[in-house]
Amino acid sequence: DQQVKQNSPSLSVQEGRISILNCDYTNSMFDYFLWYKKYPAEGPTFLISISSIKDKNEDGRFTVFLNKSAKHLSLHIVPSQPGDSAVYFCAARGNTGTASKLTFGTGTRLQVTL
Amino acid sequence: KAGVTQTPRYLIKTRGQQVTLSCSPISGHRSVSWYQQTPGQGLQFLFEYFSETQRNKGNFPGRFSGRQFSNSRSEMNVSTLELGDSALYLCASSLVAMAGGELFFGEGSRLTVL
Description:
The structure holds two protein chains of two kinds.
Chain A: E1 4-5, E2 10-14, E3 19-25, E4 30-38, E5 45-51, E6 56-59, E7 62-67, E8 72-77, E9 86-94, E10 103-104, E11 108-113
Parallel strand pairs in A: 2-11
Antiparallel strand pairs in A: 1-3, 3-8, 4-5, 4-9, 6-7, 7-8, 9-10, 9-11
Chain B: E1 5-7, E2 10-13, E3 19-24, E4 31-38, E5 42-50, E6 53-57, E7 64-68, E8 74-78, E9 87-94, E10 104-105, E11 109-113
Parallel strand pairs in B: 2-11
Antiparallel strand pairs in B: 1-3, 3-8, 4-5, 4-9, 5-6, 7-8, 9-10, 9-11
């Protein structure tokens, strides 16, 4: 049972345009959401997060939106740059008090073209 | 400061063998968790250790085990290897084992089972 779903395995965007990566979840106990970026041969690196008490969090070119009623979140990258080409994982955490048990999606490979 | 270090980076085993993977967390981090990454499945939580105690466990068979030492270094062991155990095994550390703590991942140990 995939509790966190990233239905688009890949996405191609031109440099300078907006990249929108989507993520859906099914578990209403999730209250904290994160995005990780992964380059080949490297471990995932934390990108941005959002608590369920918010509906938007912004950090430079990256903005995460959370729609709790739809159980949907999205990551916007504006403007997209070639260095953003990577696999992006959406992750969610329940309110069990433990930091490390994240439930990850299957990832979306973003390619930013020139 | 040094990041999360995983050894070995690559290894090949045959079915039925066992394997031990090692993880050294970031200095000062006491929480270590392990994830398995396979194509199409994303990252799946294996277990989490904090202060030498297993605090959480994912849905993996008993062939998967782990431990944490007093210096916070952690090892995971997989016994009686199966072909399906071929994956990238990622270790992550965090400063605290409570909600809100950011995870820092190592580069992973890529296991191939023949």
